[in-house]
Amino acid sequence: MDIVCSKEELNLFKRIGEVAELLGVSCYVVGGFVRDKVLGRPTKDVDIVCTGDGIALAQAVSETFAHKPQVNFFKTFGTAHFRLNGLDVEFVGARKESYVPESRKPEVAPGTIEDDQLRRDFTINALAVSLNEQDFGKLIDPFNGIRDLEQKIIRTPLGPDITFSDDPLRMMRAIRFATQLDFVIEPDVFEAIRRNKERIRIISQERITDELNKIMAAKKPSVGLDLLFRSGLLKEFFPAIVRPLWCGDHRREGT
Q1: Residue 186 gets which letter from DSSP?
Q2: Per residue in 133-164, is it b (16+ CB within 10 Å) or e — as a string?
Q3: pLDDT band at 78 (very low <50, low <70, confident <90, very high)
Q4: Residue among 119, 188, 115 nearest 153 (CA)
């Protein structure tokens, strides 16, 4: 599959790949940028995953520019970020995660690109494109995310109960993506949201409100409100809501 990038994006990706080669690490552009390019949606957020130190890669890439973009980094999370030509570029090392029931903050360990894709929320966000010289531009799609984009399906790489129990905010994100993209939430995934709805209580109101605002900003926010109501999530964070919010649109949960 061809991912159509602008000349500036392509030049940046080649530069990142060349620097990664010098550092002896592999690197990939992953997640939402790849998804939106496949869908033909505008996007300015670029996530780079490398099999090594993401902060070191960001700093080394910045040094190759005459006007070095300022690198902001967060050692606790192992992430770094800079802005370049209107792009927000974030770097992180590939990792694998494990969770404890009372928190959405995982225990993190270094991992492979496969580990990193496995921890992603949905198959459509687990797509990766290699920036490495030997296979530059190769699409890595272990969970058939391209098929799900074509069929307009929201599905999880792992079992949905694991995905939502590990990070309950993903239930809100599933509904947000279904609303924004006009996608269907796979029936088993929607049932898992219903089963795990009480887990949303460990998420801060700030994070919930952020996802809710994105749903409300969609072209048809009524779709998201309907899914929030029928999943039981709305009652969890807006318990005073008693009037049924029924939009009559079952398609987005696959029924």
Answers
A1: P
A2: eeeebebbbebbbbebbeeebbbbbeebbebb
A3: confident
A4: 188
Find out whether 92 and 56 touch, Cβ atoms under 8 Å.
Answer: no
Query: Phi, psi at residue 70, to the nearest 5°?
Result: -70, 130
Q: What angle do CA 29, 80, 170 make, to 5 degrees?
A: 65
- Return the structure tokens found at 149: 């984009």
CB atoms within 10 A of CB 225: 20
User: To the nearest whole number, what is the mean pLDDT of the chain?
Assistant: 90
How buried is residue 209: exposed, middle or buried, by Cβ count under 10 Å (0-12/13-18/19+)? exposed
Q: Is the pTM of this model over 0.85?
A: yes
Q: Measure the CA–CA gap between 31 and 185, rounded to whole angstroms.
A: 18
Question: Which token pair is 164?
Answer: 């939502």
Give CA–CA dist 116/140, Å, rounded. 12
The tens digit of pLDDT for each residue in 17-42 reads: 999 999 999 999 999 999 999 999 99
